[in-house]
Amino acid sequence: MRVVTDDHGEPWFVAADVCAVLDISDVKQAVERLDDDERGGCNVPTPGGVQTVRAVNEPGLYSLILTSRKPEAKRFKRWVTHEVLPAIRKTGRYEHAPQFAIPQTLPEALRLAADLAEQKQALEAELAVAQPKALALERISAADGSVCITNAAKDLGIQPKRLFAWLSENLWIYRRAGGSGWVAYQHRIQSGLLEHKVTTVEKSDGTAKMVEQVLVTPKGLARLAQVFSSAKEDA
Description:
rod-shaped, alpha+beta, 4-stranded antiparallel sheet, 3-stranded antiparallel sheet, 235 residues
């Protein structure tokens, strides 16, 4: 960006360069909207020789920033209109953190906006990592002992059919040859993720049979909460 300093040491910014940064297409119209003391002309070298071009001073520069729709400029505008100006109206001055210097030039303003955007993205990334863990802790605290796979699916907010399929594909449960019920893999039981519950059921003829059921432990529910939370984020 071309900047010319006048006899008083004040910087003047070439309007065409400013508008290009701010995605303002009509330079003439943008400059004419400024107050008389915010606009002027300056001599700059061009391939055709020194020419007089439209220019804006620092107040004019900020006026153009406040009219730009570019994301970086909009963030800067929001900072000015929502923080700086209200503070000045209330207290007569703006107190800012030592590391948060008020931008004095357009490049500094856009750099500040970009830095703030990066900080926001970093916080969102940290939150994305923390959310599955928080959800897992919520599942543990809400779980009252081990639960059947169907109830585990409800806690996870997914269809039971999907959970059964995932547990089978990822070697948590299996069916014995010729059997219809699900059985937990031994290493999942040893890891404290699953357990078996054996229930005696009385039949209509007065006899009894043993029914074996796979249960998901609070630890297993926490692990599954992390898995399916991550899957939702990737979807």
